[in-house]
Each structure stands twice: as C-alpha cells, then as structure tokens.
Amino acid sequence: MSNPHTLKLFNLLPVGSNISTWWNFGSMLMTCLLIQTATGFFLAIHYTANIDLAFSSIVHITRDVPYGWIMQNMHAIGASLFFMCIYTHIARGLYYGSYLNKEVWLSGTTLLIILMATAFFGYVLPWGQMSFWAATVITNLLTAIPYLGTSLTTWLWGGFSINDPTLTRFFALHFILPFAIISLSSIHVLLLHNEGSNNPLGTNSDIDKIPFHPYHSYKDMLMLTILITLMFMILSFNPNMMNDPENFSKANPLVTPQHIKPEWYFLFAYGILRSIPNKLGGALALIMSIMMLFTPPFTHTSHTRSMTFRPLMQLTFWTFISTFLIITWSATKPVEPPFTEISQLASILYFTFFITNPIMGLVENKLSNYSC
User: Fold this and answer.
1) Which of 8, 102, 193, 366 is catalytic?
2) Where in the numbering of this chain does the Cytochrome b/b6 N-terminal region profile domain appear (predicted)?
3) Residues of the chain with pLDDT under 70
4) Does the annotation count 322 as an active-site position?
5) Sign of the Cα pseudo-torsion (67, 70, 73, 74, in order)
6) Can you give the pLDDT at residue 12?
C-alpha cells in the first residue's frame, strides 16, 4: 500500500501535462548514480591502490570475492549507461530549450564536468594497459600549458612519471568526487523544482499542470525497469562488451598499445583533440568541446524556445548529433587519412552548432516577422 505522506509529496510537485518520455532521463540518471555509488563502495573495500597489486586486486574481486564479478561489471556497465543517459539528457535540453532555465542548466553542465573527471580517474584504477596509457596521454596534455604545464603535471603525478602516488591520488579523487556529485545533484533537483520543468512545446507550463503521481511516476518506473533490464541483459550475456581487450593485461610502461584510446564516452573529446596537430591547440579544443555547453543560455536569440517549431534549427541540431557520432567513430580509428580529415571536418561542424544557434535564431525571427 502506498505511503500517504509520499503521495502527498508527489502531489506537491505538479508538472506540465504534456512532458514526454524524454523527461524521464533525469530519474534514470539518479538511479545510475545510486548504482555507481553502491557498487563503487563495495569495490573500494577490496581494491588496493598500489601499482603492483591494483591489477591483481581487480582479478581477486572478479574471481574470489562472492558476487564480486557482478559488482565489478555492474560498475563498469553502469558507467556506460550513465553517460548514455546524460548525453541523451543534454541533447533533450538543447532540442527543447531547457537551457533557458539558466541555474538548472549551468549546475547540470558543472555536474557533467565533475562526472567526466570521476570517470577518468576510475578508468585508471584497474591498472590495465589501456588504463595506464590513456592516463599517460591525457595527463601529458597539461604540459602544453605555457610556464606552468610541467609543474602541474608533476604535481598531478606525484613525481616525474605515473607511479604509485598517481594511483593513490586518482583513487582518492575517484572516491571523494561522487559525494560532490550527490551534493550538486541535490542542488540541481532543487533548482529544477524551484523553476519548474520545460515541456516539448516550450510554452509556459503553469497554464496546465497535473500531479507528478501517478501521471509521471508510472512513466519513471517503466523507464527505470527498462534501464535495469538492459543492464542485467548486458551483465548476463556479454559483461565485457564495454571493456577494451588491452585492459585485460597488466600495465607495462615498456610496451605501448598499437592504438591508445579512452572509453567510448570520452571519444568525442579525444577525437577533437586528435584532429588538431598542435598540442596546445588540441588541448584547448578538447576543453572548449565541453565548455561550449555553458554558452546556450546566453546566446539564445530566438523568440521560440523549443526546436519543435524551428525547422532550420532542427536541421542544425541533427547535424550536430551526427557529427558527435562521427567524431566518436573516427576516434576509434588510426591517426591516418581519411580518418584525420573526417575528424577535422566533424570537429568544425561540432563547434559550428554553437555559433549558428544565435544566428539561426535571428534569421527565424526575421522570417516569422515577414510571415506575420
């Protein structure tokens, strides 16, 4: 039987009557965060942050600890599902103009950056071949910073190469940052309920609102069931689907993998990095590929909020999504023609979206005025 106090709380959170399934990804992200926190705490109990023992401790967890293989694979698969949901959540916000709720959007983009940092530190912890070399490549980008780069890299490593102190620091950061994510997520949700949700039409949701329960809580439950079912299907039939084969070998600084690449959810930024021959230019492009998400609330010029009624922006949006996927794909290929040229063209189109957004808004305003 439902708790009357819980139902009363749900009824105190009225939402727009026309919000679609795309609005369920927020609750799915909260579920992913809970799964990652719970499984991560279990893994931390058995993990050893030492370069001689880290890889062996992962093997110990998967082979000797009861149900350890489930926890380890759930944590790895959960990270991929987390990023699938968050990228979809961001794409929905861009399409429907949710970024005009500035505080909600800015807190969410900050969450993305902290989440990416946490995932990167976690990817290094198994101390496999790809973990070690991906960390080497990414942390070496700091050396591109004039004057301070070498000092910052040495400070991050805790020495003059990636070694024991580096692994200890990454483990500490990977353990602490989720608490920051949980705190900022709470603020993100509070800001959302303070400002109210957007809707597909981009109109004022205050005109027609309905109680959250049962109209939207049931949709949340359905989407969460699909998410958890998908996780357990991957876990049961192909648990290593998200893992790089190179990472099943212990890290060896003397043997470089043929093709170094991070996890798939970092490939779009890595592809942009690789497309620029200059090291500093590539590092700046990588940073800007994420920081550009802060700009839409301040560059929106259209009188219409949602892209539902903006055919020109719809074309630009789907071009942006396509370039994101193309960059991700090309980053898995060797650094040679034609993949280099494809990455460069796709990277230009990626940044063009954020530049054309305000221009398209002004053009659409002009066209709508003429039609009137």
Assistant:
1) 193
2) 1-201
3) 1-12, 369-372
4) no
5) negative
6) 59
Active site residue 197: yes
pTM: 0.92
* pLDDT at res. 7: 46
Please tell me the predicted confidence (pLDDT) of residue 18.
81
Binding residues for a ubiquinone: 193
In angstroms, the CA 131 to CA 48 distance is 16
CB 134 within 8 A of CB 197: no
- Residue 220 is a catalytic residue: yes
Eight-state DSSP code of residue 147: T
Annotated active-site residue 219? The verdict is: yes
Q: Which of 46, 60, 213, 219 is catalytic?
A: 219
Single out the catalytic residue among 263, 275, 343, 347: 263
Please report, in range form, the residues annotated as the binding site: 75, 89, 174, 188, 193
Which domains, ranges and CATH numbers included, belong to the chain?
A: 14-247 (1.20.810.10), 261-371 (1.10.287.980)
What pLDDT score was predicted for residue 195? 81
**Catalytic position from the list 197, 205, 302, 330:** 197
List residues bridging with 16 in a β-sheet: 209
Distance, CA of 109 to CA of 122 (rounded, Å): 20
Contact (CB, 8 A) for 285 and 347: yes
Count Cα neighbours of 181 within 13 Å in the Cβ-side half-sphere: 23
Residue in 131, 216, 220, 246 annotated catalytic: 220
Whole-number pLDDT of residue 352 = 94
Q: Can 263 be counted among the known catalytic residues?
A: yes
As a whole number of Å, the CA-based R_g of the chain is 22
Q: What is the pLDDT of residues 113-147, one digit of tens each?
A: 999 999 999 999 999 999 999 899 889 888 888 88
**Residue positions forming the annotated binding site for heme b:** 75, 89, 174, 188
Which residues, in sequence order, are bridge partners of residue 210? 15
Q: At a CB cut-off of 8 Å and minimum separation 6, what does 126 contact?
A: 54, 55, 58, 247
Cβ-contact 166, 54 below 8 angstroms: no
* C-alpha to C-alpha distances, 173 to 33, 52, 103, 118, 244, nearest whole angstrom: 16, 20, 26, 7, 23
Contact 337, 278 (CB under 8 A): no
